[in-house]
Design brief:
The chain is α+β, with helices and mostly antiparallel strands. Among the domains are: 115 residues, Urease metallochaperone UreE, N-terminal domain (HSP40/DNAj peptide-binding domain, Sandwich); 114 residues, HSP40/DNAj peptide-binding domain. It is 24% helix and 27% strand. A 4-stranded mixed β-sheet has the order 10-11-15-14. A hairpin with a 2-residue loop joins strand 4 and strand 5. Helix 2 packs antiparallel against helix 3. The longest helix is centred in the N-terminal third of the chain and has 17 residues. The termini are far apart.
């Protein structure tokens, strides 16, 4: 391989500024847009590669330490020796790296209604993501063209160089700076995706959200994420669930909870009420003498179990409502009612929890 200093026409003690000036001068003469000849194109690649090496202080030092530079200096580092022996770094000794890579995973937060949690729901999600380029189908090339083997690394994706070290001369391998380790270059990139093999686009992702999900749960949709570079395999799409607040019903595990206000007369005499639940009307028998904080359980009217079968229960906490405003006739009837009952004056007893605390404990079976 030609000496990099000779390619640029500078001496080995040239400054970084001298190297930059030499490269700019040669690039203006040899660039394919100015000089379309094959010889000029080959020289332009050599000039570019030489500049990439000599403009980087570390690469220049390694180059100067090799037999081609002929200069003495500090020894080659142990870390670099191990990289040379075991092929660490981009590309390694396994050949050129692939342009095709797996796409990134994506996270989407969605809100669902409590009714949808009970039964599950189908959604068609509109998302912006990376999709396969329809023009080049992931090849990254303009239709009718193909990648070309890199003339600098000859398709290996690596540049090897003998370097003097404490253990003697060893071969070091670094990614080719012309093809960036791919082993090929794309002289005619696809105009639609600019040589990426993928484009940003809006697409529809159908998803069946199962019953029983809860806030914070993440659902994984394998292969529904972004298409990778050069048409690589798609990543995964994760859906993070948030359940919206419901004005009537709340949730405790797989059970639904609600409160039912019962008039004092209905609590005394008992009655039947038709309640509108999340899956239709249901008749509830309120026994005579029901008390505040009693819980009525309707089996199988709760949340569908996410793991397992069946549904939880609907638990209804009773709150007996005492009338506040009575007319004269109603007040007289209450007095007559009280007169027929054995006197039972108010008296102190053990402190009891409030209605909501008692309901909570009874809902949870404490």
């Amino acid at each position: 391989m030609a000496d990099h200093y000779e390619v640029l026409g500078v001496t080995k003690d040239a400054s970084a500024d001298d190297i930059k000036k030499a490269y700019r001068r040669l690039a203006r003469q040899l660039h394919p847009d100015v000089n379309p000849g094959d010889d000029a194109a080959e020289r332009f690649k050599l000039v570019t590669h030489a500049y990439d090496v000599l403009s980087d202080a570390r690469q220049r030092q390694e180059y100067d330490l090799g037999p081609q530079g002929g200069a003495g200096g500090q020894g080659f580092g142990f870390g670099d020796i191990f990289e040379s022996f075991f092929g660490q770094g981009q590309g390694g000794r396994g050949g050129p790296k692939s342009r095709r890579e797996r796409g990134q995973d994506a996270l989407l937060r969605i809100e669902v209604e409590l009714e949808e949690v009970v039964f599950g729901v189908h959604r068609d999600l509109e998302i912006d993501t990376a999709m396969l380029c329809d023009t080049c189908k992931g090849s990254c090339c303009q239709p009718g063209t193909n990648p070309q083997t890199c003339d600098i690394c000859h398709g290996t994706g690596q540049i090897q160089r003998a370097v003097r070290s404490l253990l003697g001369n060893v071969m070091t391998s670094t990614p080719c700076t012309v093809c960036r380790g791919y082993g090929t270059i794309i002289p005619n990139p696809c105009p639609t995706c600019a040589g990426q093999g993928r484009v940003r686009a809006r697409t529809t992702v159908p998803v069946d959200i199962p019953g029983g999900v809860e806030t914070g749960l993440r659902l994984q949709l394998a292969g529904s994420g972004e298409v990778g570079p050069a048409g690589g395999p798609r990543g995964d799409l994760y859906l993070e669930i948030k359940v919206r607040h419901h004005e009537t019903f709340s949730r405790a595990g797989d059970d639904l909870l609600a409160t039912l206000e019962v008039q004092m007369t209905d609590a005394i005499l008992g009655t039947t009420a038709t309640l509108q639940t999340l899956d239709g009307p249901v008749d509830v028998d309120i026994r005579p003498g029901v008390q505040s904080a009693d819980v009525l359980t309707i089996a199988g009217r709760g949340i569908t179990r996410l793991r397992g079968s069946g549904r939880g229960d609907l638990k209804i906490g009773v709150q007996v409502v005492t009338p506040v405003k009575l007319d004269a006739k109603e007040r007289e009837l209450i007095r007559q009612f009280a007169g027929h009952r054995k006197p039972h004056p108010p008296q102190l007893g053990h402190f009891q929890q409030g209605l909501f605390s008692k309901l909570r404990d009874r809902f949870l079976g404490v």
